[in-house]
Amino acid sequence: MRHQKHHASLGVTREHRASMMSNLAAALITHDRIKTTLAKAKALRPFIEKVITKAKHAAAKTEKRDAVHLRRLALRDVRDEDAVTLLFNDKYKQFESRAGGYTRIYKLGPQRIGDAAEIALIEFVKADDPGYKKSRGKKSASKGKKKAAAPAEAPAAPEGEAKG
Question: How far apart are CA 19 and CA 24, in angstroms?
Answer without folding.
Answer: 9
